[in-house]
Amino acid sequence: MDRIYLDWNATAPIRAEALARMVGTLATTANPSSVHAEGRKARSLVETARQEVARLVNASETGVIFTSGGTEAINCALDPRWRVNAAAVEFSRALIGSTEHAAVLAGGRFDPKLRASLPVDRNGLVEFEALDRALAATTGRALVAVQLANNETGVLQPIPEIGRLVHARGGILICDAVQAAGKVDLDLTALGADALILSSHKIGGPQGVGALVLRDEAVAPGDPLIRGGGQERGHRAGTEAVAAIAGFGAAAALAQSELHETARYVRGLRDLIERELLARLPRAVFFGRTVERVPNTSLIGLPGAPAATLLMALDLSGFAVSSGSACSSGKVKRSHVLDAMGVDPHLAESAIRVSLGRGTSEKDVIRFIEAFEKAVKCLYKRATAA
Ligand code: PLP
């Protein structure tokens, strides 16, 4: 039986071009810090990728710091000490969106006492008044972390407006754009965030590489998270993962050149899923559907259809989807995102995330709709028989 992969937000399948560039690089690479010809060639592969990643977010390549992934880039950024035009700046508070990814919620290098959570509304959008109140109540300066796109719902935050509010109160804004890259246009200047987080494996590059992208190199985390040699202009020590970075660059270039075409294509498929499921299962809920979302994501809720059971049934029928809840130590934990949005706990426990990509076909989507309807109806039948 052919498997149908509808979990692109977890990891997007690697692009053939990224793989080819990685394989070529692995076969020939030297240390990019070496001054000899082989080293200079490795350096040029890293710098080409830096330009490609910078172009994806319309940033300056001098702002791109390669890391081992989104999680490390987040931990680099969540530093209570930054340098702003060569002066040391200490942040007295970290204000963190309540629907952020676990890597951001963990608070980086901020003492837990200095962290505060920002509430969101029913659609998962950060409440402006609460943010403004939290900024006004901060003695000193605040570092604010708000994602661009949510990994579960796909909901997009109005980052430019949030940035204006944060800057007016003297703070800085870190924006996790891991789930937005390759799905919506990204322009770091227009977004107005001070730093963006990117991850290669969400855009068709390899796992284990990502980037912290600074809007202005003069506004940067004060202490490197990983100390040692002076790689990445002193921001991140350690010999660069040349092949992974090269693959990331290739994926970034493709994501940028194909962005509009891919977005249009996956939006059509996502809308087909939502339209058809609603017609077949009228109690279906699509979280965040009434606000702006990335085009490839649908988080589906159905009262009385537990996600854990649905997920297993779908997996057995050949579909890779994800539950909106996280699994830890054998127990299914309800999604903190849906909890923060005030979703009824029973409905939240049913959430299934479907995330699509350019490799998803209309046939895949139609087969999914049929399998999903069948699995839900089977669950309902069993529940009424019991
Ligand atoms: N931020 C978001 C929104 C994510 O979805 C993820 C990965 O799931 C990360 C950060 C972490 O990125 P990485 O897997 O590269 O550490």
> Based on the structure given, which CATH architecture of the largest domain is correct?
3-Layer(aba) Sandwich
Largest sheet report = 9 strands, mixed
CATH fold title of the largest domain: Aspartate Aminotransferase, domain 2
**Bound molecule types:** pyridoxal-5'-phosphate
| Uncertain stretches | none
Order of SSEs? EHHEHEEHEHEHEHEEEHEEHEEEEHHEH
CATH class of the largest domain equals Alpha Beta
The percentage of residues in β strands lies in 15-25%
Shape: globular
Distance between the termini: 32 Å
Counted by DSSP, the helix tally is 12
Radius of gyration: 21 Å
Query: Can you give the mean pLDDT?
Result: 96
- Please report the total strand number as a whole number: 17
State the CATH superfamily name of the largest domain: Type I PLP-dependent aspartate aminotransferase-like (Major domain)
Protein architecture, described:
The protein has two domains: 136 residues, Aspartate Aminotransferase, domain 1 (Alpha-Beta Complex), CATH 3.90.1150; 238 residues, Aspartate Aminotransferase, domain 2 (3-Layer(aba) Sandwich), CATH 3.40.640. It is 39% helix and 18% strand. Strands 2, 3, 4, 5, 6, 7, 8, 9 and 10 form a nine-stranded mixed β-sheet that branches. Strands 11-12-17-14 form a four-stranded antiparallel β-sheet, covered by helices on one side. The longest helix has 39 residues. The relative contact order is 0.16. The two termini are 32 Å apart. Strand 6, helix 6 and strand 7 form a beta-alpha-beta unit. It has twelve helices and 17 strands. Helix 2 packs parallel to helix 8, helix 8 crosses helix 12 and helix 9 crosses helix 12. It binds pyridoxal-5'-phosphate. The site of pyridoxal-5'-phosphate has 12 residues, from helix 3.
